[in-house]
Design a protein that fits this description.
CATH superfamily of the largest domain: Cystine-knot cytokines
Distance between the termini: 21 Å
Radius of gyration: 23 Å
CATH topology of the largest domain: Cystine Knot Cytokines, subunit B
Strand content: 25-35%
Number of domains: 2
Helix content: 10-25%
Shape: globular
Largest sheet: 3 strands, antiparallel
Structural class: alpha+beta
Order of helices and strands: HHHEHEEEEEEHHHEHEEEEEE
CATH architecture of the largest domain: Ribbon
CATH class of the largest domain: Mainly Beta
Number of helices: 8
């Protein structure tokens, strides 16, 4: 086990050294200004505001900057020693502080020749989940960055090429990648914590409210789906929602095939609502190896809502496998369209924008309603940490 830990650390160090390797310069070239590079970066990522990947709920477009800075401040004030893992959250604190693989938001300066010059990512000091020898694994979102080449363009400026980067946005308790343990079947205990039950009831209430009918106006007609899709794309900066569920190893050319394969695996491994099962092993996707395993489900929205259907991450586990800690959703906030009773000048329904929390993963965490104080756990020296798969 200790050899595997050493190998893991050496592998991690090697990756850091490779990523820190200098990008060679060409003395006859000049750098384009940051405005040009930022514009291209935004274009490659469909204008994605990466701060949204780290804010799980309760923000608006008007206060996103304030909320994100507050989260960074909390990360800095609650930062833990590399040798310790600590649950510092309770009550309604952000999920990252209540997780059994707690993480903080860290700013990382990129090596020279890379744009953006710095990026935020989710960093956990825990190689294993608190109270368990299961692995803490990153949940990644793939972005495009820019890397300087040695070539000049006709204006004497460096040519930058696009490059894919895995951005860690959270951490999840999971079956180790290299482990060959067979699927573990666990029946949910009858004495689940009251906060977990309250969480389930609240979730059910939200679903009932969202299923309420949208009233019609008989003098209006519906705009066609092309118009609505165009507005939906505009509201969400062209976000391809499938990318939120694919943790690694996809390209723009095979994203459709990869996503369909993931949905197919979800359907074939779907579990009974009364059971939680870890069906993953080896290099299976994180969603099947998690201690709050989830599947990708297609949900038809009520009439008057666009898109008419959405995919989301669904877990049948109210609590983490092997623990009474809560399974809580990691959310990404999107904009959807809701029909009003008003008509526009063309006799078409007016649609208004509405915010929706989209579940993209599930995390073992201290229950929101729980008032347990921060639990301090020292990581054992003989923990088996899997070698990261890149």
């Amino acid at each position: 086990m200790k050899n595997q830990v050493i190998n893991s650390l050496l592998f991690s160090l090697l990756i850091q050294l490779l990523e820190a390797a200098p990008v060679f310069k060409n003395s006859s070239c000049s750098n384009p200004n940051d405005t040009i590079l930022q514009s291209r970066f935004n274009e490659l990522n469909n204008g994605l505001d990466m701060r949204k990947l780290f804010l799980d709920s309760d923000w608006t477009e008007n206060d996103i900057d304030v909320r994100f800075k507050a989260l960074i401040s909390m990360s800095n004030s609650r930062g833990s020693s590399p040798s310790l893992c600590k649950v510092t959250g309770k009550g309604n604190d952000p999920l990252m502080f209540r997780s059994l693989c707690p993480w903080k938001i860290v700013k990382s300066n990129q090596r020279e020749g890379i744009f953006p010059k710095s990026l935020y990512y989710a960093k956990s000091s825990c190689p294993s989940c608190i109270g368990s020898h299961k692995s803490c694994e990153p949940l990644n979102y793939r972005i495009k960055i820019l890397e300087r080449t040695t070539q000049c363009n006709s204006d004497g400026l460096y040519v930058y090429k696009e490059k894919t980067k895995e951005l860690q946005i959270a951490h999840v308790c999971a079956q180790a990648r290299e482990g060959e343990q067979t699927g573990q079947l666990v029946t949910i205990a009858s004495n689940i914590d009251v906060p977990v039950i309250n969480s389930l009831l609240f979730s059910l209430l939200i679903q009932l409210l969202e299923a309420a009918p949208v009233f019609k106006n008989s003098s209006c007609s519906n705009p066609n789906d092309t118009i609505l899709q165009s507005r939906f794309n505009e509201l969400n900066n062209g976000l391809d929602i499938r990318k939120l569920f694919l943790d690694s190893d996809w390209t723009e050319n095979d994203i459709d095939v990869r996503f369909k394969a993931l949905v197919s695996m979800s359907n074939s491994r779907g579990s009974s609502p009364s059971l939680c099962k870890v069906t993953g092993k080896g290099n299976d996707p994180l969603m099947f190896r998690s201690l709050c395993p989830w599947k990708i489900v297609k949900s038809n929205q009520r009439e008057g809502i666009f898109p008419k259907s959405l995919y989301y991450a669904k877990s049948s586990c109210p609590s983490c496998i092997g623990s009474h800690k809560s399974c809580e959703p990691l959310n990404y906030r999107i904009k959807i369209l809701e029909r009003t009773t008003q008509c526009n000048s063309d006799g078409l329904y007016v649609y208004k924008e509405k915010t929706k929390e989209l579940q993209i993963a599930h995390v073992c965490a201290q229950a929101r309603e729980g008032e347990q104080t921060g639990q301090l756990v020292t990581i054992a020296s003989n923990i088996d940490v899997p070698v990261p798969v890149r």
